[in-house]
Amino acid sequence: MDLIIQSLPFLLDGVLQTLKVTLIAVALGCILGLCGGMGRLSKNRFAHALATCYVDFVRGTPLLVQLFIVYFGLPPLIQQFKVFLEASFALGPFSSTSHIPPFIAAVVACSINSGAYVSEIFRAGIQSIEKGQSEAALSLGMTQSQAMRHIILPQAFRRVVPPLGNEFIAMLKDTSLLSCIGYAELTRQGQLIIGSTFRSFEIWFSVALLYLIMTLGISRLVDFTERRLGINGHHQS
Amino acid sequence: MAIIKVRNLVKNFGDLQVLRGINLDVEEGEKLVIIGPSGSGKSTLLRCLNILEEPTGGSIEFAGVNITDPQADLPKIREEIGMVFQSFNLFPHKNVTENIVLAPLIVKKSDRPAAQDIALSLLKKVGLSDKAENYPAELSGGQQQRVAIARALAMQPRVMLFDEPTSALDPEMVGEVLEVMGDLAREGMTMVVVTHEMKFAQEIGDRVIFMDEGLIIEEGTPQQLFTEPVNKRTRSFLTRVMQ
Ligand SMILES: Nc1ncnc2c1ncn2[C@@H]1O[C@H](COP(=O)(O)OP(=O)(O)O)[C@@H](O)[C@H]1O
Ligand SMILES: [Mg+2]
Q1: A237 and B136 in contact by Cβ < 8 A?
Q2: 10 Å Cβ neighbour count for A8?
């Protein structure tokens, strides 16, 4: 018990970091996802192809590998780019390290990852709105984008709340992978504590419990939002 | 003068020829009724009139403007052509008043008090003043369709298109919708109505056309078409629906 109490501040700090990265990643993911989802539905061939490549690449490769690409793969590339700028345009000098801080790498990789899944959620949400809705809007003289903004998206947003909640929970659990680049989220904190106390079972169990509390909390929040938006109420026909 | 002129209109869905050369004029103030068996292309014809379906061939003129021209300003044209759908298509996330004022606000940039006044008077006209704050899902089918008519009228269109407006309704609600449409007809609105309500067609129709397999087979006054149809297909269709 003493052990848990002593470790608790570290674990709670990990909880905070986990929530922070997850929130930022899903928020940025929603922006990327709205673009991605619209791109997937676009009649513009280029936008469609771009969005499809993005979604397929991200969903078809492991988050851990994406994380390594950003954290380990990008710095040498950035380094070469700096050398190129210095040599070709006499720009610089730049600071010599091209190291990306773990937090930035974490946010970038997780946002890009989340954005792909959210793209598909938005695409499905938009497609689930009956064709008659946009036809009614167009027949009243609205442009395509007015119909999208005032009629389709508001209805689609209500329908995507539950899958977005699932994505949030999935992302939150996936942030445990950030321990691999040394980012001090919950799992990493657990590893560190065990490194000095050697009490695997108690610590991992506490870590699991903290994840559970977070995911259950999010589920409740999603249920609440769903009810507030009247998804099961009379605002939805 | 004809407000709508359809010339040699053709519409294909892939290999399927749905409209195979339609010629049609609709006069200002005219009430045109379109009848015909299911699948004959009535909805497609109506939906071509405001380019919800893009015609494959031929031309359509609305108020002197060629609306089949790729350069045509479709939103501007559609403002003047109201449409009422079989399935109502009210906006479920907006209450009745918001359904009606939305398009005037964002398309016509009307100011809210004026739009709201118009909405209230339209609701009175369709007999739903007490439902202004309700959501569509709280209304019966007949009430929803009357709101849909009010919503279309709020744009002050020059023509109203009705695609089987009572077909999705329980029988006891058909009357209330036809009544609203009858009022509109008597006010002089130009109307193109696809319907199977023969009694209504006879009462308000200036002209009836019978469509089959993507063609206009026969046309005439309701009196002519219903009592002494010339074409065999018209006759057999009428005996089927009249019984
Ligand atoms: N969007 C579409 N894609 C493919 N076929 C269609 C589409 N809309 C209508 N059709 C076909 O066109 C034909 C005519 O349909 P429609 O105009 O709805 O007939 P009606 O309203 O007279 O019953 C039908 O065979 C129908 O299946
Ligand atoms: Mg039809």
Answers
A1: yes
A2: 14
Whether this prediction's pTM lies above 0.90 is answered by no
Distance between CA atoms of residues A233 and A171, nearest Å: 29
Provide the residue type at B220 as one letter.
G
Classify each residue of B59-92 as buried b or exposed e, where b means 16 or more C-beta atoms within 10 Å of its C-beta: ebbbbeeebbeeeeebbebbbbbbbbbbbbbbbb
Question: What's the pLDDT tens digit per position in A174-196?
Answer: 999 999 999 999 999 999 999 98
| C-beta neighbour count of A180 within 10 angstroms | 14
Rounded distance, CA B106 to CA B118, Å?
Answer: 15
Confidence of residue A95 (pLDDT cuts 50, 70, 90): low
| Structure confidence by residue, pLDDT tens digits, B41-87 | 999 999 999 999 999 999 999 999 999 999 999 999 999 999 999 99
**What CA–CA distances, in Å, run from A98 to A64, A103, A147, B207, B213?**
21, 15, 46, 79, 70
Each residue's pLDDT tens digit, B90-115? 999 999 999 999 999 999 999 999 99
Give me the interface pTM, i.e. the ipTM.
0.95
User: Alpha carbon A85 to chain centroid distance?
Assistant: 33
Inform me whether the C-beta atom of residue B91 falls under 8 Å from chain A C-beta atoms.
yes
Residue whose tokens read 């060629």: B66
Nearest alpha carbon, ligand 1 atom 16: B41
Q: Tell me whether the omega of the peptide bond preceding residue A93 falls within 30 degrees of 0, making it cis.
A: yes
Phi, psi of B167 (to 5 degrees): -70, -25
Given CB atoms, is B236 within the 8 Å cutoff of chain A? no
Helices (H), strands (E): how many in chain B? 9, 10
Q: Going from the N-terminus, what domains does chain A have, and what CATH number goes with each? A: 2-229 (1.10.3720.10)
Give the pLDDT score at B98.
Answer: 97
Chain A residues within 8 A of B87 when measuring between CB atoms: 132
Structure confidence at residue A96 (pLDDT): 64
How buried is A97 (Cβ within 10 angstroms: 0-12 exposed, 13-18 middle, 19+ buried)?
exposed
